[in-house]
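Work Package 4 report. The design task specified in the project plan requires that, given a folded chain encoded as structure tokens, an amino acid be chosen for each position. We show below one input record used in the internal validation round.
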């Protein structure tokens, strides 16, 4: 039986070590950048190094566990436990020295996320949650915003890497939703946005085409902070909405008809 409190303490230590490494490398601005699926889909050698280190730590401590990471292959050890890691969420930001990026690590058993940790190196903010035990920023318990009206809400979103070629590029929802909001934010890091929702810095969030490593830790943190999460697919494109129950419902009502009724 895994002691999740002990695992969370260990993973927070790992995340901070990786975040410190990323800050150090960024300060020197001495790293290579490559493209993946599109010219806007970047990977740096720091992404690869960070994932390599995290994988090594997991393998040393939990050699039988599966590992799903953004930058490497899926390690399938036929375990009921799977680690889901995004070693550097916000690579485009990082490559441009824009100081919003995150280390995101989650542990699942079967299809249930048991623990999630997100570290924001430039802000030195550590977020984590254990299933059924609440969500925390540092040592302080956090809760989502209780706002229910779009007109008073500050909401975050993002755009997919194939926005130039895909119908599901989030521009249509943005054009409809933006005029009805108090404000909108686009950070470039889903992990940052999800932590911001969990800690009520942002009232709600929506985005298309996120991968599991983008949100595995963040969704648990939001749920443990009292938030609502809605996930569906529109034309084979995943959609994620998070926030208060009322705001999630209102965002659904704005977004889904755009695609479903056309």
């Amino acid at each position: 039986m895994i002691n999740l409190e002990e695992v969370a303490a260990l993973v927070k230590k790992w995340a901070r070590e990786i975040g410190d490494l990323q800050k150090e490398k960024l300060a020197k601005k001495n790293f290579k950048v490559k493209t993946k699926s599109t010219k806007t889909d970047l990977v740096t050698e720091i992404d690869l190094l960070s994932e390599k280190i995290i994988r090594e730590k997991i393998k040393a401590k939990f050699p039988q566990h599966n590992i799903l990471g953004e930058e490497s292959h899926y390690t399938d050890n036929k375990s009921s436990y799977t680690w889901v890691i995004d070693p550097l969420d916000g690579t485009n930001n990082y490559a441009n020295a824009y100081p919003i990026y995150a280390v995101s690590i989650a542990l699942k058993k079967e299809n249930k996320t048991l623990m999630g940790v997100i570290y924001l190196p430039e802000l030195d903010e550590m977020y984590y949650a254990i299933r059924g035990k609440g969500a925390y920023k540092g040592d302080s318990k956090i809760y989502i915003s209780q706002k229910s009206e779009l007109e008073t809400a500050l909401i975050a979103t993002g755009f997919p890497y194939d926005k130039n070629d895909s119908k599901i590029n989030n521009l249509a929802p943005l054009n409809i939703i933006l005029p009805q909001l108090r404000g909108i934010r686009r950070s470039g890091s889903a992990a940052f946005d999800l932590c911001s929702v969990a800690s009520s810095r942002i009232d709600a969030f929506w985005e298309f085409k996120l991968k599991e490593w983008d949100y595995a830790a963040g969704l648990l943190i939001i749920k443990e902070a009292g938030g609502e999460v809605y996930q569906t697919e529109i034309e084979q494109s995943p959609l994620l909405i998070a926030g208060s129950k009322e705001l999630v419902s209102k965002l659904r009502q704005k977004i889904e008809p755009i695609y479903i009724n056309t």
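The CA atoms of residues 198 and 222 lie 5 Å apart. Validation will be extended to a larger panel in the next phase.
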